[in-house]
């Protein structure tokens, strides 16, 4: 309780305060007000700092204020804020999904790789050679698809209840993979859950280059199949049926599951049934007969062609050997069509004809088209052949083989030798005709004396022959006894005369002239005279005379101033010299 | 074989991954590679006569960017909340996660105060920590770096899994 005195003091104090500070402190306030901004501005940061140092009260005051204002700002400008955060958040989500998946996929891959035995190793090498990924290779080479491994997973804990793999290769990491898969499944369920769709999103499959994980989710279990190749829808259906079966059969075990996986070991047989595969049996195509026939024909044609080409080249080789045959030059041997050969040669006319050579070699000449051009060969055999031909005209000389090929042997007189030498020199390829004839014996030509005496003897005999007459009976051509003896003598004389004539190099001939007397008709007489000459000729031939020298002529009636003047019933002789005048002058 | 799922939860960079690595592989790295999503590991634990297999779910750090995903806890037999005694905030966040988790499950939880090799650097009093740890089935002070209490902690968690 305040006393009256106290009240009085208070009154007084207020009065003083009013005087000093002004009514309602207006003097002081106005003074401070004018500097307030400056004063607070100078110390506000430091003051806050100092105050925060004392205790947390300042944040307690500020945090709600700040939060309120941020909230207000975000709600008012939410679109803008979403714009700011979207890139950051989107990136974060994508990154986490990727990291998440890559980890589990990597694990599953090694799992699969390890579960493939020796066969797998072979495939792996082949896949590397082919430059494709292993499971692509497996898929393409062997299977349309193959379920490699099946996991039975508890959907809640992600604990692997059981797993089966091909070839009984279970992997130690399988339970971790199953946990990760479950985690991914949860993650997917949360991250991609549709707000207006109450149903939880489920991971149905995870695809990689190497394999596909097919997930089949039941209420409490997840069945996962690792599949290589292109898994068809049946695999998923199969998984679904298996999941349902296991749920039904193991309902109690699932309900009381406390982490003990042993009751689920009995699911092995069910899981094993999920290890389905489809062999990549290449569909049996119809045999491409047309292609086979065409191919066969091509092969046959090729063999045919090969055979003929071979034969043709054999033939060409054979024909090339013709070149070594003397006097023949092979210019070219070319294939003509498929089987024939065209042959172009230069051939000396003196050489062996090509057709003969072909026959000798057993080559059918219808396969060879020969085109021949003449030429003169100087090859020795050809030259020899020409020499032989010239020498053949000289019966007195012969060709004998000698050290330089051959020799000419025999006898010739000077004139003949000269002629032969000239002829040989004219042969192409004969360079020294004189050497060829060197060994020929030269017959000495008769001396002029001897020539004259020979001629005298010839004339003597010729005269004797000319003087001989053979008489016949009238109208008769028979030879009388006397006639025969005379003719025998004449024959000897003729023989001598011919020999002399040969020595004298005279060409001679005996004219046997028959004649008749004038009695009888002319034609009869003509015939009679001819018959008489013929009879004499025949007789002389029978006696060994050379018929070439004998010429029988019928003269008819020959009037001779003889006894009785009745003409002559006789045969007369005349040894004639036919030697041309030129030859006679040659003679020394 | 009995298998049990356990989860490690906590703020980012408190050392969840490091604890698991130390427990399973016995190695520690100073490098920080943040976990994305979930990483599942396993470890066989001998509990007296029986052996169980722990499926250890290492869940990404929960912070304001990455919310708590209760689904990850499904089917777990126990979970671990990891906090870092060099960061006050980590305990606060750990407690928030703990509360969220308890909304969906009633499995036992263990509080792990990690990085004990480093000096304590938070403003929580021993009493404040104490009261919070009482809400858990157990509490461990571990170092993923030195391995201190790591095996003991997981062993305790394994035992908790088999308790029911
Ligand atoms: N000194 C020390 N450092 C630690 C310890 N535990 C973890 N670290 C370090 O802390 C950092 C984070 O560790 P993590 O194990 O990756 O943390 P986390 O909780 O898995 O992180 P998130 O995965 O991002 O949530 C790393 O650099 C570790 O080296 C510890 O006991 N002592
Ligand atoms: Mg981590």
Automatic annotation (TrEMBL), chain A:
Domain OmpA-like as annotated: residue spans: 461-579
Keyword field: Membrane, Transmembrane, Transmembrane helix
Record flagged with keyword Membrane: yes
InterPro entries: OmpA-like, OmpA-like_sf
Sequence intervals crossing the membrane: 289-307
UniProt keyword Disulfide bond, yes or no: no
Source superkingdom: Bacteria
GO cellular component, one term: membrane
Protein name per its UniProtKB record: OmpA-like domain-containing protein
UniProtKB/TrEMBL annotation, chain B:
PROSITE patterns: RAB (PS51419), RAS (PS51421)
Keyword Nucleotide-binding: yes
Top-level taxon: Bacteria
Keyword ATP-binding attached: no
Record keywords, A-Z: Nucleotide-binding
A molecular-function term among this protein's GO annotations: GTP binding
Signal peptide extent: none
Gene3D superfamilies named among the record's database cross-references: P-loop containing nucleotide triphosphate hydrolases
One Pfam entry name: Ras
InterPro entries, per the entry: P-loop_NTPase, Small_GTP-bd, Small_GTPase
PANTHER family linked: PTHR47978
Protein name: GTP-binding protein
Organism: Alteromonas halophila
